[in-house]
Amino acid sequence: MTHDAATSTVAVAWYGRVASGDPIDVALSLSWQLDACRRTLPDPFHIVATFYDVGSGLAPAEVRSQAGVEDCAGIPIPRDGGLAELLEQANRPDRPFDAVVCGSIDRISRSAQMAASVECELDRAGVTLLAVDDGISVDASGLIDARPVQQAIAEWYLISTPPQRLGTDHAHADPHVRDAPGNAADVDQSEGKR
To answer: Domains, the chain, ranges and CATH?
Structure first.
């Protein structure tokens, strides 16, 4: 990770996401996520861009960014785009940030595969992904990463939560959710065989 030697700051983009809800709840949740990230980032990290979506954590980045545009209207946080735009900017040679911070990895995605894909894309672009609930620590060797534990928790939540509670049709397309014991599809199939 590079930083601006003249100002001794590391430019960071923030990413937040809420599934849906009342506009006031959405605004409060996103504000809370952004404030938590600001409070947790150590010096010399500074948020220079804000990206967020209102939509399912299982939807592809492009779908989230487009679907959430109307839902983001009226939220008092400047929006540089959603996840798709964040990834697009991360891949530009003149990107304005060197790292991305989120409140937790499940804000990127509830799916370990999708979250890992986003993290790999950022890593290929030379951008570090940080998550507040992983703990953001800097020592002589660089950033300390506890993300694998948090990602396992997010994946457990995805697998153990019935699709109707996730509030998304995308859950039915995910084989982990669709085939998980106890989900609606499993119950329907077992009842039909009785």
So the answer is: 10-147 (3.40.50.1390), 161-194 (no CATH)
Residue appearing with tokens 């849906």: 20
Q: In the chain, where does DSSP find H-type helix?
A: 23-40, 61-67, 69-72, 83-90, 105-108, 112-124, 147-160, 163-166, 175-178, 184-193
Close Cβ partners of 85 (under 8 Å, ≥ 6 residues apart): 51, 65
Distance CA 162, CA 176 (A): 11
Report pLDDT digits (tens) over 125-163: 999 899 888 777 665 445 555 556 666 777 777 777 766
Residues in the chain: 194
Helix (H, G, I), strand (E, B) or coil at 25: helix
CA-based end-to-end distance of the chain: 59
The whole model's pTM is what? 0.70
The answer to whether the peptide bond before residue 162 is cis (omega within 30 degrees of 0) is: no
